[in-house]
Amino acid sequence: MSWATIADWIGAICMLIGAALALIAAIGVLRLPDLLSRMHAATKPQVLGLIMVLTGLGFLFRDPEVIGLLALVALFQMVTSPVANHMVARASVRAGQLDTDRLLVDELSGVLAASKDEPRGAP
Question: SS in 3 state form for 24-40?
């Protein structure tokens, strides 16, 4: 077996694992009961699945320019996904769309109660 054949197999396996993780994330978003659980299912396996797909593409293309671009995509996904989901969670807490009975720790209720007079942005 040559290096190209081994790299193709590794790339295919990584892409299959990434697709499976994306499927698990989609099932989690559909099946889990509340917003925070759905957000966890949407971020953790989805980001890891994307990184696996990008790794598979890197093994399939084997071009340094493409691998650099794929690494940038993975880096930006890993940086922006947690921030975006934090903002969605905070907005849902402020809007009262969160099931507080399922929370074990609630650190925002005291902060939000103290800042009731501040404008919240768009209605």
Answer: HHHHHHHHCCCHHHHHH
As a whole number of angstroms, the distance between CA 67 and CA 120 comes to 42
Distance CA 23, CA 12 (A): 16
Please list, residue by residue across 73-91, b when 16 or more beta carbons sit within 10 angstroms of its beta carbon and e when fewer do.
ebeebeeebeeebeeebee
Residue-wise pLDDT tens digits, 58-111: 999 999 999 999 999 999 999 998 888 888 888 887 777 777 777 777 777 777
Provide the 10 A C-beta neighbour count for residue 104: 4
Structure-token match 């890197």, residue found: 58
CA terminus-to-terminus distance, the chain: 62
Angle at 45 between CA 72 and CA 16, to 5 degrees: 80
Q: How far is it, in rounded angstroms, from Cα 59 to Cα 80?
A: 25
